[in-house]
Amino acid sequence: MDPGAIAGVLARIDRHALDGHELAVLLRAEARAQAWLQAGMAQSMVELSHSPDSPTLRTDGARGSAERTTRPNRFAAEEIALALGISPGSASWQLRRARFAYQQMPAAWQAWRDGHLSQAKAWACHDELADCDDQVAAEFVRRFFDEQSEGRDGLTPAERAAHETAGEFRQRARRLVQRLDAGAAARRRDRRVRGRRVCARHDGDGVGYLSGTDLPAESIAAAYEHVDALARARKNAGDERTLDALRADVFAELLSGDHGEPDDLFGDAEPDGPHDGEPEPDGPHDGDPESDAPAASGPTAGGGRRVNVRPVHVVVPFDLLAGGDTPGEVVGFGVLPAESVRRLLDATRRRRSTWAITVVDPQSGRPVAHVRRNFRPGARRRPGAGRLVELVVPRRALGLPVDEFDPRGLVPRALLRRLLEQAGSAPRDWCKQSHRRSAHDATAPQQRFVRARDRRCCFPGCRRRAVACDIDHKVPHEQGGQTCPCNLHCLCRRHHQTKQQPGWMLVADRVTGNTRWHSPHGCQAFNDTFRLDSQLYERPSGGYDPGAVCFPV
To answer: Burial level of 126, CB count in 10 A (0-12/13-18/19+)?
Structure first.
């Protein structure tokens, strides 16, 4: 049914007479009608901005001119502001995005008008393509909205866009734009970083906010992990404040100078021994920058005692190792341009860190192995969060010589050789009897693999990072569920509890690993966190023939 017709039907519905399932269906229909209305408002804004000025209001009841001007009216934003009762700045912001969607991306606007795209996703298209030329924008539209071919999830690009949350859509759009025009993405990042600033505002009632904007993602990630670790240390020591309140208090205390000396915050830095450039043996050690536990833990900051800080997790696509421009990612904080990733790797070579390889089956897009090693270059250890660098590679690439695998030497050579050897001998079939457990708790290697595979909470739309999630059995252990990765997935604590509530049901596909969630009122949603974005492990820049490389058995 046309969303416009839906709007007329919705006005006549008595919501008090509906049951839970009917209300859920109604909510979806209302969302489509809302998108239809918002797309219509965007069109009206653009048309108004091209309407000729009328020197006087008509008093004879006759209609004004319906002609349109070629150039938009300079003061259209002020007219829209008065019509909607919003500020001129807000009206100008909305008009720019409406004009982009309606005039430059008609396919996206039509999807919006049909109720398949929300306003937040339409605005995301503008934000990600703002620095790109028309050719890049046209290719973006073709890949996102025009292609009819189905992906591995059985959905066309337009259908997938409709099913995604706004955050997932924006992340996928950003990655595609950076792949189509890496220069534009780098220019936008550099322009925003040049304008970085600290903002403070009083909101009344004696409170306000303080924030740093347009900072590099890697700096934000490291700063957040420091604050989070100190807050968790206080929580573990018995502080009754919420974790959010503790983070806010630690943040304010650090900036105001009330928290103590640096050595009290992060512990004394200790020398790491002679510089040998060799990777450490695999496994935990004192000061390991990452813990397999869902949350960082440690003693209260102060008195020289060390706080366990989660590492900044950087994902490096296979193409980037060969000099391509496929963007990387700082997990939990967004996409990172290729040149920024290379600079980050160069700095990481000189500090204590953890490096990992996640091996992906290119046919299914599913991770099949994950290994990691701790690296100690010999330099004096810096206090605070370490780094976890994850290389995502197709399984056939494990047979490549080291110099072809990483021709630019972004990864320390001795470390890379050992990682490749370790990946070649890692388990491929976790469901074999030798890898299963009768006990409830998963082994450390199983947990590392499941977290690397899932990346985040497996509830549809949840973005909580896997490192902060519980390892849950899809089929409960007490009901005969196996403790092996095919029956394990990551759920944040809230959605772990949600799964256990009456009426909620999870159906897992044992072949693909994907899950479908069913709510008590009949809503369904599909989760495919097992399938990684193909841009992470494909090499589009040439020189790589996956069929010519033998995978070590």
So the answer is: middle
Neighbours of 230 (CB within 10 A): 27
DSSP 69-119: -SSPPTTHHHHHHHHHT--HHHHHHHHHHHHIIIII-HHHHHHHHTTSS-H
Two tokens, residue 57: 């209001």
Look at residue 213 and give its three-state secondary structure: strand
Nearest to 303 by CA among 246, 254, 253, 263: 263
Q: Residue 163 and residue 40: Cα distance in Å, rounded?
A: 22
Tell me, rounded to whole angstroms, the distance of Cα 77 from its chain centroid: 34
User: Rounded to whole angstroms, how far apart are CA atoms 76 and 53?
Assistant: 10
405's CB contacts (< 8 A; 6+ apart) are 321, 393, 397, 416, 420
What residues does each domain of the chain span? 3-51+70-194, 215-430, 456-531
**Tens-of-pLDDT digits for all 553 residues of the chain?**
666 677 678 778 888 888 888 898 888 888 888 999 999 999 999 998 988 765 555 555 555 667 788 888 888 898 899 889 988 889 999 999 999 999 888 888 888 998 888 999 999 988 888 778 888 888 888 888 766 655 555 667 777 787 888 888 888 888 888 888 877 777 888 888 898 999 888 777 778 888 998 988 888 888 888 898 899 889 888 999 999 999 999 999 888 876 544 333 333 333 333 333 444 433 333 333 333 333 333 334 454 455 677 788 889 988 888 778 888 888 877 788 888 888 888 888 877 889 999 998 877 778 888 999 988 876 555 544 578 899 998 888 888 888 888 888 889 888 889 998 888 888 776 666 666 778 889 988 889 999 988 888 999 888 888 988 999 999 899 888 888 888 899 999 999 999 999 999 988 877 667 788 888 888 888 786 666 666 665 554 443 333 322 222 2
Strands (E), 154-308: 197-204, 207-213
Residues 6+ apart with CB under 8 A from 370: 356, 357, 358, 359, 426, 448, 449, 452, 453
Token pair 């990765």: residue: 485
Alpha-carbon distance 330 to 388, whole Å?
A: 10
> pTM for this one?
0.71
CB atoms within 10 A of CB 265: 21
CA atoms 179, 515, 460, 393: torsion sign: negative
What tokens were used for 307? 């706080």
The Cα 184–Cα 179 span in angstroms is 10
What count of other Cβ atoms lies within 10 Å of the Cβ of residue 112? 25
For residue 537, what are the CA distances in angstroms to 72, 118, 389, 451, 465?
Answer: 45, 30, 15, 18, 20
